[in-house]
Amino acid sequence: MLKLIPKYPSFVLTKSIKQQLSEQGFEVTLRTIQRDLDNLSSIMGISSSESPEGLKWCYVNSGHEILPALQPCEALLLCIAKAQLSTQLPIASLNQLEPRFSKAERTLESSTKFKNWRERVKVVPYGFPLTAKPINEEVRTIVYDAVLNQQQIALSYQKQPGERKDYLLNAHGLIIRTNSHYLVATKTHSPDVFQLFKLSKILAVSNNLEDNQFCANDIKEYLSSNATGYLLSKKLIKLELLATGPALLIFEEAMLSENQKIDLIENSMVRTAKVKVSVEFTHELVHFLLGFGGYVKVLQPTELIEKIEERKSYLMG
Fold first, then answer.
1. Structural domain includes residue 132
2. H helical segments located in 68-223
3. Residue 277 structural domain
4. What is the spatial distance between Cα 219 and Cα 140, in angstroms, rounded to a whole number?
């Protein structure tokens, strides 16, 4: 039970402790939990306070955490996981892990070798770096909890500037891209139709604690369908192109798909290759290829060539 309590300023509600203990096979009452924590509070440095949802608990900064010792490699893994995955985990889970993250940081401080590893390795995203629009943390907490528990939420949403809409949704999943977070949900009047809602556009949200309506479609299939990729066609296209210069270097170092094939063209004045690959036809693909300028020439399919020419004409005014 003590391992479920986070360090201040995070906290956990008594009912959350009861639920987590129940999931682990320990059936206890709220009264028993509160009594035991009260008895241990002065010994373990545990603090409690009132909230609209009941008592909430946390370790004060001087509290003693009941955690096993960590090896430096384990500590490094936890610290990297916190840095890279914090936006992908439910807030409640992050709060529960906070004592472990703190212990991991202290463990690394005493290990020069592993501490230096973080200073020597940096993950850099491909393309021009963009700063994501901020997401209200209260909104993110409620949305993540609803997805975790498969419950309905009511939200106010800004579709366009000055345009506010209210929805009652079934929260089914999340799609997290580099710069955008999307809630995958269905409206209560169309429970089989998945739709996307950007978390940064949610103005207000509340959880009514009702279970999601049944959905006839598979959320796993939807998440695998590149729903945020702005599809121009539901069918894969067979892309053929000529690549040279920096474009060829990109295709040699990374693949658009596992079925990508590259054949160098012999006797060409400039090192050139034909690239063949089956990919999804998206706006992103069009912009990606346009970004190489004259270093890429698309040979087929015709619909992709036409879309690229259309974008060129638009850019030229």
1. no
2. 72-85, 91-109, 112-120, 137-149, 219-223
3. 231-316
4. 20
User: Is 87 in the same domain as 24?
Assistant: yes
CATH number at residue 180: 2.30.30
Pick the last residue of a domain from 223, 256, 283: 223
CA distances from 231 to 78, 206, 281 (A): 37, 31, 6
| Residue 296 resides in a domain | yes
Is 305 within 8 Å of 285 (Cβ atoms)? no
288: part of which helix (H) or strand (E)?
Answer: helix 283-290
Is the CB of residue 70 less than 8 Å from the CB of residue 104?
yes
Domain of 268: which CATH number?
3.30.70
pLDDT digits (tens, 9 = 90+) for 88-137: 777 777 777 777 888 888 888 888 788 788 778 877 777 777 777 888 88
pTM of the model: 0.65
At 306, list the tokens: 């036409």
Tell me which DSSP letter residue 178 carries: S
pLDDT for the residue numbered 61: 62
What is the spatial distance between Cα 132 and Cα 109, in angstroms, rounded to a whole number?
31
- What does the H/E/C string look like for 114-131? HHHHHHHCCCCCCCCCCC
Question: Could you say which of 223, 257, 288 is where a domain stops?
Answer: 223
The answer, yes or no, to whether the previous bond of 161 is cis (omega within 30 of 0) is no
Residue 134 has a pLDDT of: 85
Looking at the fold, whether 219 and 245 belong to one and the same domain comes out as: no
H or E element that contains 251:
helix 245-253
Evaluate the omega torsion of the peptide bond into residue 72 and state whether it is cis, within 30 degrees of 0: no
Q: By percentage, how much of the chain surpasses pLDDT 70?
A: 97
Tell me how far apart the alpha carbons of residues 6 and 100 are, in angstroms, rounded to a whole number: 9
Q: What is the CATH number of the domain that holds 58?
A: 1.10.10
Q: What is the tally of structural domains in the chain?
A: 3
The answer to whether position 32 is within a domain reads yes
Q: Are 173 and 219 in contact (CB under 8 A)?
A: yes
